[in-house]
Structure formats: C-alpha cells, structure tokens
Design goal:
Number of strands of chain B: 3
Mean pLDDT of chain A: 85
Oligomer: heterodimer
Radius of gyration of chain B: 39 Å
Low-confidence stretches of chain A: 93-97
Structural class of chain A: mainly alpha
Helix content of chain B: 25-40%
Structural class of chain B: alpha+beta
C-alpha cells in the first residue's frame, strides 16, 4: 500500500502541471483543474493497477481525455438547458486562459492530438495509446486538423 | 513549437489538490464499499428468508360426508354428492361399464 501511495504521489508531482495544460487545451482554463482533479481521483481509485500498467502516462491521459469529453458534453447540455430556460450561465472564475479562436475550430479530439503531437512531441503511437485509437487514425486526424488550421489562417 | 498553454497557471496549489484527490477517492471508496455491503446484506436476507420460510399448512383432516346419492334410474345417470371438509361439494358420476 505504501509503495502504491508513493508511486501515486510521484506521478502526481510529475504530471500535475502538464495535465492541467492538456486539459486547458481541450476544455479551457475555467474547467481544466476540475478535469485534472477528477482524472487523478479516478487514477487513485485504480492505483493498485498502476505498477502493472505498461504505459502509466498514456493510461492517465486516456482517463483525463475521457473526463474532458464528459465535461464538454455536460457543458453542451447546460447550454441547451440555459437556452430553454432563458437564464444566462453565470461566469465561472477561471485561470484567465481561454481557448483562442484557432483552437475553437478544432474538435476536442483534434485539440488533443494537436497538443500531444505538436507541442509535447509525442509520436502517433503514444498519442494513439493515450486517446484510445489506432495510430493510423491519429495520423489521419492530424492531417485533417492541419488542413483546418491552414484554411482558418487563409480566411483570417 | 512553443506551448501556448505554458501561460496557464493552476489556481489550486498542487498539495491542496493532492489532498482533495485523496479525500474524494477515500469518500468514493467508502461509498462503493457501503453499496456493496448493502447489496450483500440484501442477498443474505433474501436467502435466509427463503431457507427459513414457514412450511405450507397441512391439508385439513376429515373425511368427505355423503350428501345425496342416486344409485339407479331410467333417465338419471347414477351419481353421488360428497361434502368435502373444506366446504366444497364433489360430484362423483358413475358411468356404465
């Protein structure tokens, strides 16, 4: 139990900030910390499996990516409900860094791929393991998102 | 390529978040355990109720009482009426051999 606890703590110290930035790239600054905390809670509940996991980083980023998608889904539902009720969503105190227009044209999956591969320098296999898809699919998405960015740059 | 999200600084200090993570994980573990314990105790109670269920009541004792009997006749079919102990009437029809 002690070893697992120490492993988890080390993992947290090493990946906390990077995970916050990854979540910020997908859901924006206001909800990034919520997503990271929830992902670490889920990892804590599975910490016995952590020593046996082949790639703990990919395992954790997969959890985090799923949490981010859940948050985005909830946000969509909330937006629809707020539209029906006619009450504006109260602004949440965030960390001050919101997604730029260039990021908003990308889907959450494309944001994750772009961030992991272009900013973190992960290869397609590592990104695929983290996002739960095949490396070929990751490469296709990366190709498409680059086209989107080129189009957006040409328009703006 | 430089990371545009390097500017992102979490408002919660890491040690505070780690403590919150531990607290929340502990709470969920306890909740999960209590749900499992509740389900297990329900299952045990159901099995105990089934095993120690009361035995079915024995059939009421006593013989049938003859009420009326027709033993012969031209038109009537010979029959016997028997009053059963539970209040029902049984008709016994004798057919020709």
């Amino acid at each position: 139990m002690g070893v697992e606890r120490e492993l988890f703590e080390l993992f947290f110290q090493r990946h906390h900030l990077a995970a916050c930035r990854f979540a910020c790239a997908i859901v924006g600054g206001a909800e990034a910390e919520d997503a990271v905390q929830e992902a670490f809670v889920r990892l804590h509940l599975r910490q016995r499996r952590l020593p046996a996991v082949e790639n703990p980083e990919a395992f954790f980023y997969r959890i985090l990516y799923n949490v981010c998608r859940t948050l985005l889904r909830r946000r969509r539902v909330r937006t629809v409900l707020v539209g029906w009720l006619g009450r504006p969503d109260p602004p949440r105190p965030g960390a001050g860094l919101e997604l730029s227009q260039a990021w908003r044209i990308l889907s959450p999956r494309e944001r994750a791929i772009f961030y992991l591969m272009d900013y973190r320098g992960w290869d397609a296999a590592a990104a695929a393991a983290a996002l739960g898809m095949r490396p070929a699919t990751v490469r296709v998405h990366r190709h498409r998102l680059r086209g989107k960015i080129v189009d957006w740059e040409a328009e703006s | 390529m430089s990371d545009p999200f390097d500017a992102f600084a979490p408002t919660t200090p890491p040690e505070v978040m780690l403590a919150a993570v531990r607290r929340e994980a502990g709470r969920r573990r306890r909740q999960r355990r209590s749900v499992l314990a509740g389900l297990a105790s329900l299952a045990v109670a159901a099995v105990a109720l089934w095993v120690f269920r009361p035995a079915p009541a024995p059939p009421p004792a006593g013989d049938a009482v003859l009420v009326h009997a027709v033993t012969s006749g031209d038109r009537e079919v010979p029959y016997t009426l028997l009053a059963l102990p539970d209040g029902m009437i049984m008709v016994v029809v004798r057919t020709a051999p």
